[in-house]
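Record pair follows.
FIRST:
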Amino acid sequence: MFESSSPYSDFVDATFLSIVGISLLVLLGILIAMVFFVVRYSRKRNPHPTNIEGNVPLEIAWTLIPLALFMGMFYLGWEGYRQMSNVPEEAIPIKVTARMWAWTFEYPNGVTTDTLFVPVQAPMKLTLQSLDVNHSLYIPAFRIKKDVIPNRENVLWFKTSAVASYDIACAEYCGLRHAYMYTKVVSQDSAQFEQWYKAISLGQSKPYQALLDSTK
């Protein structure tokens, strides 16, 4: 957890920790105020109730402070959404098809796989479509999740930071074998990826062109 695996994973982690920290401070403040008022205005200390008039500065403070906190959290959420939506022009396009109960990844030359192989440090643009019901492509290590909906195309992008393997899951309950929709993102160095891409292209009788060179 909290390892940088995509261009925006650090920002998502920082946003998560910021909101948790703010929530804990608010909770602590409410608990302290509650205990103070219970003790300060208990029947033992105040046997005869008195009317308390409004306090304009206090009312302004408890309006503006929560507003500032919520607007700050809104900004963090918007900035994260903007980063995830700004797809680089040079990103390699991959068509992702979801169905009960599997993922299919199609490369520009028509090669299809059930595991997503990508070159390290290269931006990847995934166009998502479903053949049946609602699914949701979720890569926990990258902090990304995007719904995959019938008759609609959604887009997400990422770039891996290291040669590694990452889990892909479906985060939308899609039927009896929903739990079977697990696969991997396998990040390879450029030479290894091109070697794999050439071999699988020839194996599936698809035209081969160096994928990394073709995107420059």
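SECOND:
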Amino acid sequence: MSGLSKEKIGGILARQGILVAFVLFMVGFALANQRFIAPDNVLGVIRSSAILGVMALGVTFVVISGNLDLSVGSMMSFSTIVVLDLHDQIGPALAIPAMFGLTLLIGAVIGFLVGYLRLNSLIVTLGMLSAIHGLTLTWSGGQNMDIADKEGTWFSVFGQGSVLGIPVPILIFAGLAVVLGLILAKTPFGRKVYAVGGNGVAATFSGVRRARVVFMCYLASSFCVATAGLIQASRSLGSQNTVGQGMELEVLAAVILGGASLLGGSGTIFKTVIGVLILGFIKNGLLLVGLQFYVQYTVTWVIIILAVWLDIAAKRGRLWSPIA
């Protein structure tokens, strides 16, 4: 087969298998329903994926640094409820920065616990998931939130507006991806994130302040979550207090699908964007071929398992364990 050995083919599939699967999904869905590749459908999928995508950009920093963040779903619910509640009390011009400040404060608490106190990120963020959910219910009194005057507010521009025919959520997603991608790939801070995730001990002995880097990664994650909450609140001008429940798994799936390693030290913003689009287009394709929306949950689970398997396979250079 053109001189390619079985091991080389296995190595290629281990590293690029998810992209091959994505192409096969796209071709299959396009053949099943021609509307799948229609411009309005493609734009609609990207727009609906923007909230998940914005959150995944921040979590990419956390994962590359060798940690996890399972609190982003609850944090997004909190930021959405807070900005909607404050909108009617103090106006959107003050509600938006207030919401960002409170969300960043939560991110700072997580960053302090994981970065400076060296607590396990899985345990901390899993605990914060419940704590933030409780905080959201306390803030809202257990009620959903709606803006009173939906017709007379400029707040809707973030979720419903468009510029030159391109929806604003897509522009926000793309803009953040460019900025954060440059920070991660071209700045000293980005190199420190990779160093901490690749080998934290070696990075510390090299003069990198590991605790500060981890702390800043969680701040970046909380900033992205606040942005996602802003888009969500603006899109519907109302929200349930559990709107972000379960999104942490989808976000993590998108990041890992994009090639970021659960062990830390690898991944890019660009590939995270690809991972987000993979999830978005697969869900859309399943609906267009007539499958019910709840099938998406099973498919997401399969994708997560596949992503973790390919991640481990990429590390050892083959799809199967040599001792299997």
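COMMENT: The first helix runs from residue 6 to 32.
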